[in-house]
Amino acid sequence: MAENFRYQQLTQQLQQLLAQGHWQPAERLPSVRALCKQYQLSLATVQHALHQLEALGLVEARARSGYYVRQPLSAVATTKPESAPASPAPVTVPELFVDIMNRSAAFDIQPKGPVVNLPHLTLLHRLLSRTLRQHGSRYALHYDEPTGLPALREQLSLHYRHYGLALKEDQFCITAGCQHALFLALQAVCQPGDIVAVEHPAFYGVLQLLQQLQLQVLEIPTQQDGLDTAALQQALSRWQVKACVVTPAYATPTGACMSPAKQQHLLALAAQYDLAVIEDDIYGDLGFYQRPSPLKSLDTEQRVILCSSFSKALSRDLRIGWIAAGRWHDKVARLKLVSQLAGSQSVQQALALFLAQGHYKRHLQHYRNQLQHQRDQLLNALQLYWPEARYTVPQGGLALWLELPGKPNCTEAYTHCLQQGIVLTPGELFSSSGQFQHFLRLSFTNPMVGSRLTALQTLARLLRNKH
Amino acid sequence: MAENFRYQQLTQQLQQLLAQGHWQPAERLPSVRALCKQYQLSLATVQHALHQLEALGLVEARARSGYYVRQPLSAVATTKPESAPASPAPVTVPELFVDIMNRSAAFDIQPKGPVVNLPHLTLLHRLLSRTLRQHGSRYALHYDEPTGLPALREQLSLHYRHYGLALKEDQFCITAGCQHALFLALQAVCQPGDIVAVEHPAFYGVLQLLQQLQLQVLEIPTQQDGLDTAALQQALSRWQVKACVVTPAYATPTGACMSPAKQQHLLALAAQYDLAVIEDDIYGDLGFYQRPSPLKSLDTEQRVILCSSFSKALSRDLRIGWIAAGRWHDKVARLKLVSQLAGSQSVQQALALFLAQGHYKRHLQHYRNQLQHQRDQLLNALQLYWPEARYTVPQGGLALWLELPGKPNCTEAYTHCLQQGIVLTPGELFSSSGQFQHFLRLSFTNPMVGSRLTALQTLARLLRNKH
């Protein structure tokens, strides 16, 4: 048991160092002997940990030479500056999107596969049932305030304070989820025809919104450390951009995080070019090793609009998100009121209790470990069934980004896979440019075991035969 | 007991005949003797019933002459054709609106007053708790279909079938309430600058939406039997109108219902002028004597967009509404997906069970009686405390429309009343024209007893002193 614990601990430590870039890709790790000495561990323990890292695809053993940092798929490799669209354009999104949403909006390759056990839900649902018993009659007859239940906004304020972001409860507005928050943000800031800069690859929900609101998209290359702010700067000098949408923490699909230097640069550019910065923080609470401070914590000009929700960290069934819209707060609150009227007070109250009683914090500790474990299951499966693929190794969030050799067209494979009961999320959804056709996003929201593991194996085989 | 039952039954019968226009305003009712003979009841029973109708303000006794139908406030008296704005204009809504919403979006004069007992809620909440226990884990990880849970859409289809509207489950899209449905409808049909015809007076939520979506409003006079379609015809021949928003059943604020003839005329005009007709059916289930067929049941061209929700009939806390958008169905579903992503599956599932098990139907039977009782409480209170005011006597819905003699400015009185803990709903909210300043909407959602009754008395006194 002790040995078991020690090798797991070492695996964790080395994994964290790798994540932090302590060693460069292709760099040789310290020798087994050196690691034994450094960590005061036995040869067997160190070797066990290194085998584990190898199984995760994080390092590779070279005969008679040692362990080398495996070159993960970085956004650099996939999105060279020249590959991003050079000028703003109206958005077109494949019709496929609606079909996928109809089947499984969680983008799970096997929507009927085993479901992760979420013990915190029992507790949350108990709080909800109690709230309904206690306040149901009054809530049934009165709508909440336009900005949402004060008790919940207070808890959000306290939550963010732990991570370096000081906002008062009246700076938040509760929404019906993060997508709704993004919608309100874009609607408040932009007029039809305006140009909005996004990451490349970007979250498909944002691209859909731009299309709906008749906005033009400008896709800015994104690397492992986030949006290429130098490329953004070039674009800003050339085009009149109204807003920039970024996901600084564990962006979907790549899982990339934005470096502090780039965050500072982005805000300086925003000030210079009078830009609204829309921050999608939905994965912020799902970092395995840390909870990054939101970009908004650096915002001295009230021009960062923070958008998030409980959908990813807690439950997609709650339909509760929030927006801290800075200088656009009043406009956003009015928009929400007019387009939606109200939110569920009982759900907000139950969530406020769940946070106030410390359950959310405890849940996150547990859930982050679970997600990391599921990511490792996925990495193991990929090493085993899809060794020729390249993929990012996210340090948080819910998905990784996979590049397929031989460049099969994943969009075309979608229907064929569906006949096998497999829902794939084609890379093409993440750009308006038609690029990323040989990319996939793979989710580790659910355990990669049982029928889901079989589905992955089948998927690898199907796509291998495609080229 | 038997006597008690008989006079109540007669009161009901006479009330229904009055509502159906069996006698004209100012017409003399049959004599007490004639009524005794007709209904085979004792003198005491008939007199008891007539006193009851008098207390409700529905008839008035004239000495030595008998009982006369009291002239209720009809929309005719308040909205003469010439009083409605003559040409389309951008909407301006008083800022006051947001302030009211912040205090009590249910527009209750005494938001902290006694709350009506809603026994059905216990049952609904139990179904919800059970659903969460059974399906919570899966719902937490997957979003629902873009158009909402099939089981609920199926129940809606069955529900409307009882009232002459045959729609399949796939013709509905679940929304986050009726306001959200109206938002989706207008967004799907109109472009900024388009002209939308509305009732005069209109639901403030629609006016807010038009302002938000930068649409122009054209207010069409409305009488006791609904929108003046002759006036609409004149307007259509002059202006290019894109859509018309109507509430054919128990419209807020007047409680008016649209006559079948006017409904047919409206649809003929819609066909001739290629109009979208947006039907707000939110009060349809709350008719005291009948459940009117929705306007959409006459729609042969898929140009009526039915919008409704469970907020008024069941609970404002559910945030579940629906839209049946006819030819705009796909567009609306896409819009919902992009702006909101999903709805709560557990709440939808609990509602589907609530309807399927017959609880909704039973609840409505009970709730309609309760609302009628509360309306009568309000009418009694008005007779007592505000005899000089004129008001509509709605046969369903949740509110009546009150005209004040001496024309005090209710909008100006708002703040003063608030200091007394009274929230009034000024008539000015129901038009973009600045008219209806000496009107109020009064809700009978809650019992007019205790502190709410005192508030009404105070309100009458305050406004009496205003002129």
Automatic annotation (TrEMBL), chains A, B:
Residues 4-72 form the HTH gntR-type domain. InterPro entries: Aminotransferase_I/II_large (IPR004839), HTH_trans_reg/aminotransferase (IPR051446), PyrdxlP-dep_Trfase (IPR015424), PyrdxlP-dep_Trfase_major (IPR015421), PyrdxlP-dep_Trfase_small (IPR015422), Tscrpt_reg_HTH_GntR (IPR000524), WH-like_DNA-bd_sf (IPR036388), WH_DNA-bd_sf (IPR036390). Pfam families: Aminotran_1_2, GntR. Keywords: Aminotransferase, DNA-binding, Pyridoxal phosphate, Transcription, Transcription regulation, Transferase. One of its GO terms (molecular function) is transaminase activity. It comes from the Bacteria. In the C-terminal section; belongs to the class-I pyridoxal-phosphate-dependent aminotransferase family. This is PLP-dependent aminotransferase family protein. It comes from Rheinheimera aquimaris.
